Amino acid sequence: MTNPHRETQKDNILIDCQDQDTLRPSKLDFSPDEQKAVYKAFSARRDIRSYLPDPVPKEILERILHAAHLAPSVDFMQPWNFIVISDRNIQNKLYQVVEKERLRASANYDDLKQDHYLRLKLEGLLQAPMTICVTNHSGRGGPHVLGRNTIPETDLMSTACAIENMWLAARVEGIAMGWISIYQKQDIRNILGIPDSVDPVALLTIGYTSHFPDIPVLERVGWAKRLDLKELVFQNQWDQKELDE
Amino acid sequence: MTNPHRETQKDNILIDCQDQDTLRPSKLDFSPDEQKAVYKAFSARRDIRSYLPDPVPKEILERILHAAHLAPSVDFMQPWNFIVISDRNIQNKLYQVVEKERLRASANYDDLKQDHYLRLKLEGLLQAPMTICVTNHSGRGGPHVLGRNTIPETDLMSTACAIENMWLAARVEGIAMGWISIYQKQDIRNILGIPDSVDPVALLTIGYTSHFPDIPVLERVGWAKRLDLKELVFQNQWDQKELDE
Description:
By secondary structure, chain A is α+β, with helices and mostly antiparallel strands.
């Protein structure tokens, strides 16, 4: 084991095994109101591209980042870092490299409205008072990270879980978030001084907004529809639906 | 645009732009108690490997899957599917291919306790009344998915966000979840009949447990430490800390 964060303590694995001896389910420690609040957060979370200039209070930013850090990670490797960008000059540089990729991507769209919409989506980078670059460091856990031997991308999935926690935390704080992924990673590394071994996997614009729409904007403008969940759930085998449906 | 889910509706992009004309922040629609409930869910979520045989009620399973489906996805592509496995014969087959990879992985561990711990982690597959295989289908959105031109793995990150939603929803329902990623994808495809174009990215064991520990098991047994969040957050540039710290 070469993970520098690890210090193997002896004998306490046995404590862990004792869990299996208690055969009653754990007492439910979330009240119906608490359950509703969590489901409300899932439903109310939106990808927002329109921001007000008001700054994000420092204590709220800290709670959002703390929520990220509570995410699960493969082998507890915690592969994430967060670069909080409030320097307008750097935000402008980020916008320029994103805009360069937008122009390249727009060649794929023959609908002027879609092109217009894509432009709007990226202007959040100029409007938002703050952008957080989330990075993923595959090398953090050493060469034998448990669970990455067979599926190496589980580190990236861990970082994505951290982003989802941030998004939910921001939403309950009344803070809007948008996820921008139209950029070349090397451009972002150059601007933010990120080492080659670290991947900038998301640019998250963060700030107050005038309202959170009831349905996702991409759904509202007809870009895509929400799929029917029943079509996505199978029983025991791929493509096998429940017999009673 | 070749996404079959898309039907471009005209003229309603303009409605979207009106958001920018209202210059007051949205009214905070989460009460302090609701905020606390969401933060409590982040803190209380655990990777659990020890299960009781009690079945997961169908209505709870449906709420957990609905939470998954409310996750963000790049270009709203919703690349996920969920195979709910309650057939004991299939669960045993999954355990066998996971156990095969455990034996291969254990060659990397020279500490007997670590090897013992790894074995315990996977036995959840035999104990849990239910396992959900979450898959990711990169091809779902067609060839020009917005935001995947430059960072193709954003589809996988979307599916990871869905898994985090499931995990939080399960936790508030008193249902334990564990994420197993020690397997060859092709083995899982063979057992569950998954097409080659679809990636089985997680096996999630799900069920009741006797208790949710206060701190993550990997931290408690000394496998890894929680990193100091302050060391992971930078200001405007990689490795740049706040001046007042």
